[in-house]
Specification:
heterodimer; A: mainly beta; 6-stranded mixed beta sheet; 5-stranded antiparallel beta sheet; 56% strand; B: mainly beta; 7-stranded mixed beta sheet; 4-stranded antiparallel beta sheet
Chain lengths: 114, 114
Amino acid sequence: SQQGEEDPQALSIQEGENATMNCSYKTSINNLQWYRQNSGRGLVHLILIRSNEREKHSGRLRVTLDTSKKSSSLLITASRAADTASYFCATAPSKGTSGSRLTFGEGTQLTVNP
Amino acid sequence: DTAVSQTPKYLVTQMGNDKSIKCEQNLGHDTMYWYKQDSKKFLKIMFSYNNKELIINETVPNRFSPKSPDKAHLNLHINSLELGDSAVYFCASRRAGGVQETQYFGPGTRLLVL
């Protein structure tokens, strides 16, 4: 089964700086999603990008997808201390009923220092 | 008005015991999931139900048995608990089909087996 890999595993930046996290995957996808997990909480969906899209924006978030390289990046601009969390990419496969299955990456722990 | 709720939030028990975790969603979704998140934050799918029918059953020990009495509830029963079962268990739900294919997660149940 495919497995997402995220890079870096941990990222520490100052408030106001931009944070970039990368995700790579192995098989064909229908879409790729990014989730945030605050410490001790469940995952919260941030943004979804479809396989036929290359870039998507939502507020301070910018996601890119390169299906030829099987990779995606999440950019958080003008970071805030409240952005401190773990960020996960998740891929939905392109075929079959397993389209409802998401495979999660290993996550990037982002720390934004005030 | 919680979307996906889980009980209990914390569960501390002895090896060999049997325990259950309950999940309820009030989003009207058709599909529900159980995930296990280990100490390294790796999130792995265990089971998925669609309209009370099991559609995903990963390689999970048969000590774990999901039960879906109706499409708003998905419970997880664990027999003969082992030390390695210690983890955070997340329930999630999703609306089948449509443009949005995101999953909504519960707050998690932190299981510690002593």
